[in-house]
Specification:
Layout: H1 11-22, E1 28-31, H2 36-45, E2 50-52, H3 54-60, H4 71-84, E3 89-92, H5 100-112, E4 117-121, H6 140-153, E5 160-165, H7 173-185, E6 190-193, H8 199-208, E7 213-216, H9 228-234, E8 238-241, H10 244-263, H11 276-283
Parallel strand pairs: 1-8, 2-3, 3-4, 4-5, 5-6, 6-7, 7-8
Length: 304
């Protein structure tokens, strides 16, 4: 049953792999996974990591991204996803769910959940989506205390602590660069600068900051959607696509529901659906027969 009920790779090994990937000289691509099944697909297609977006998670709960979700909820969701994939999982931990001591606890709890790393941001709590106006950020010193508490609480030295700054849209890129350097000095392994606009902005940041960098390629935001190959050439170490899979799914769901409402049947939508056989293939349903033939004792045609 190795690699079936749960991933065959241990959390410790996934963290080592994440570190090596960030240092490999090639960009690490982390699509957002809205559920464990999506994470399995991310791995099967060949990406290097999985991302868990706070915005996508809150939206799936029908909540806005304003810090309403709790550490307990995020941890349970993250553990379910990390359990099924051999890829490293990076989690959006917002502001650390409180003061520096809360950020420290967040590290230990998410370490125990089996993820490979998380990012903490310098917004005022409660936070808001990084691509909206009206954000507020804490002082550099306060964010440094948040990060130092997190670093001190870390037990696995390979667990990646990423620092996100929202300063570029509030105080300008130069301020964001200064903050990034201070955050790296405080022990951050990876820097995530939110809401840069153009490739030249990303280039300026890369030239000024000598630590691994993460780019956010979210749709309908302030950043141009720059291909991973271009970000790689600029010198970025990682890129996330945080809400992409949720938007794809919700777009298809809304379209389908409207068709059923208008036509009274899903018949015209069947060709757009994942087939039952493809779902069972992704679930590795047939492999369960190796464990208990009573679980899987049937066959499916390729058309189902």
């Amino acid at each position: 049953m190795t690699g079936l009920i749960a991933a065959s790779t241990t959390p410790a090994d996934k963290r080592i792999a994440f570190r090596k990937s960030l240092e490999s000289g090639s960009i690490t691509r982390l699509p957002g996974a809205v559920n464990p099944l999506t994470a399995k697909l991310v791995q099967e297609i060949g990406f290097e990591g999985v991302y868990i977006s706070g915005g996508a998670f809150s939206a799936a709960l029908a909540l806005p991204d304003i810090g309403l979700t709790t550490l307990t909820e995020v941890t349970a969701h993250s553990a379910q996803i990390a359990r099924v994939t051999d890829l490293p999982v990076l989690v959006d931990a917002d502001t650390g769910f409180g003061e520096p001591m809360s950020a420290a606890r967040t590290i230990t709890v998410l370490e125990d959940a089996g993820v490979a790393g998380l990012h903490l941001e310098d917004q005022v709590n409660p936070k808001r989506c990084g691509h909206l106006d009206g954000k507020a950020i804490v002082g550099t010193d306060e964010m440094v205390r948040r990060l130092r508490a997190a670093v001190a609480a870390r037990r696995d030295p390979n667990f990646v602590i990423c620092a996100r700054t929202d300063a570029a849209g509030i105080e300008g890129i130069d301020s964001a660069i200064d903050r990034a350097k201070a955050y790296a000095d405080a022990g951050a392994d990876l820097i995530f600068t939110e809401a840069l606009h153009t490739a030249s902005d990303f280039e300026k940041f890369r030239a000024a900051v000598d630590v691994p960098l993460l780019a956010n390629m979210t749709e309908f935001g302030k950043s141009q959607l720059i291909p991973a190959q271009v970000l790689d050439k600029i010198g970025y170490n990682a890129v996330i696509y945080p809400v992409t899979t949720l938007r794809l799914a919700m777009g298809a769901i809304e379209k389908g529901l409207r068709v059923i409402h208008e036509e009274g049947t899903q018949e015209t939508l069947v060709d757009e659906m994942q087939t039952r056989s493809r779902l069972y293939e992704l679930l590795e349903y047939e492999r369960y027969n190796e464990f208990d033939s009573g679980i899987f004792n049937f066959t499916l045609s390729t058309k189902q």
